[in-house]
Design goal:
Length: 371
């Protein structure tokens, strides 16, 4: 018996094909490894193979489904994976870099998402960083995601807050070069309201100019205070800009963090505020890109003179292909007697927990491949 497809069958097949075309999932990632020499002062030095000196190693899944009328459902699941050991980074969290689901509108220019996400503050710092939060001496060294919940571990909602924020709702709106972002975080999700967060930013980009500003208020997290203590608010803000002159793209900015002194024992070694400024340039070369940045962080102490850490970094990124590059990254951090600055790559961190007065030098030659 010969089969004749009915009109209904043909419609269903066409509808299935259309639905498949309207939904997509992309697998992407980055593998980075660097041979590194580190000098921590006082004749302390070591050689190591680090993963994530350049852009952090990752394996990610990104998906989108067209819901019609310009509306789409979106998700990102992104793991940080160390190339040197094959283990999870970000405190051992399976999807510690990002894990969120949301809705977006192409026509309206807005997105709404829920999960573990980058905060508006973190995204503004990335935009204002000469090195894009990668290589030794990038802006992770200002302390965003480090100082706000210092006792949190990978199993805690406060881990890496207020850079990556768990239990959060985020929204953004973009049009004509202007982007507004907002975020609310539930923190530890308890009746004490520890770790609750509110963050917002504004960014404008046009004709080679970028300006951005962001602010965050976050309550102390449970791990940082006594079990019966009411969490106090902590505040941070930043402003940054860049301009592409053609021969070079210049970056500059300022960041400040004010932790609360409530629920703490204040000693001569307790700093009560940090303030950071930076200036850098990204210079196109005949082949590759040269990046140079100077960063200074000041620590205010109530019972002593201020601490200060100065970092000078230089990176040369040499592309071998569209997806593969060699790089050299060098940075020198100098702390005065009260300075407790740290030195960050995209993932590894040196002088943490910080020892006052420690000078750090790091030299890396690395290979990165993205897919």
């Amino acid at each position: 018996m010969k089969y004749q497809p009915t009109a209904l069958c043909m419609v269903l097949v066409a509808a299935a094909s259309t639905a498949q075309a309207q939904s997509s999932v992309t697998i992407y990632g980055n593998v980075d490894a660097a041979i590194t020499h580190v000098n921590l002062g006082n004749s302390q030095s070591m050689n190591a193979l680090y993963s994530g000196v350049g852009p952090g190693g990752r394996l990610g899944f990104r998906g989108s489904e067209d819901l019609g009328d310009g509306l789409s459902a979106n998700f990102v699941m992104e793991s940080g994976i160390a190339a040197d050991t094959g283990t999870y980074q970000q405190g051992g969290i399976a999807f510690g870099r990002q894990m969120w689901v949301g809705l977006g509108s192409r026509s309206g220019g807005w997105n709404l998402s829920a999960g573990r996400q980058y905060s508006p503050m973190a995204l503004s710092l990335v935009n204002a960083d000469t090195q894009g939060n990668a290589y030794w001496g990038n802006l992770l060294s200002v302390g965003n995601g480090v100082y706000q919940a210092p006792s949190a571990t990978g199993a805690d909602p406060g881990f890496q807050a207020s850079g990556r924020v768990s239990n959060s709702l985020a929204t953004s709106w973009s049009r004509s070069g202007l982007t507004l972002r907002g975020m609310l975080g539930a923190g530890d999700e308890n009746s004490r309201k520890t770790g609750q967060l509110a963050s917002a930013s504004i960014t404008y980009e046009a004709n080679g100019l970028m300006v951005t500003a962001a602010a965050t208020r976050v309550r102390q997290f449970a791990k940082d205070i006594a079990a019966d203590a009411a969490p106090a608010w902590q505040n941070e803000w930043m402003a940054g800009a860049s301009y592409d002159f053609g021969l070079a793209k210049l970056f500059a900015g300022y960041y400040q963090f004010n932790p609360s002194e409530t629920n703490k024992t204040i000693t001569a070694a307790t700093w009560t505020k940090t303030a950071s400024w930076w200036l850098g340039g990204r210079i196109p070369m005949p082949v590759g890109t040269l990046m140079v940045q100077s960063l200074q962080t000041t620590f205010t102490y109530p019972q002593a003179s201020n601490g200060r850490g100065n970092t000078l970094s230089m990176v040369y990124d040499y592309p071998l292909s569209k997806r593969t590059a060699l790089y050299a990254s060098v940075a020198h951090l100098r702390n005065n007697a009260k300075g407790v600055s740290v030195l960050y790559g995209a993932v590894p961190i040196l002088n943490y927990p910080a020892v006052a007065g420690t000078d750090v030098k790091a030299y890396s030659v690395g290979l990165r491949h993205s897919f």
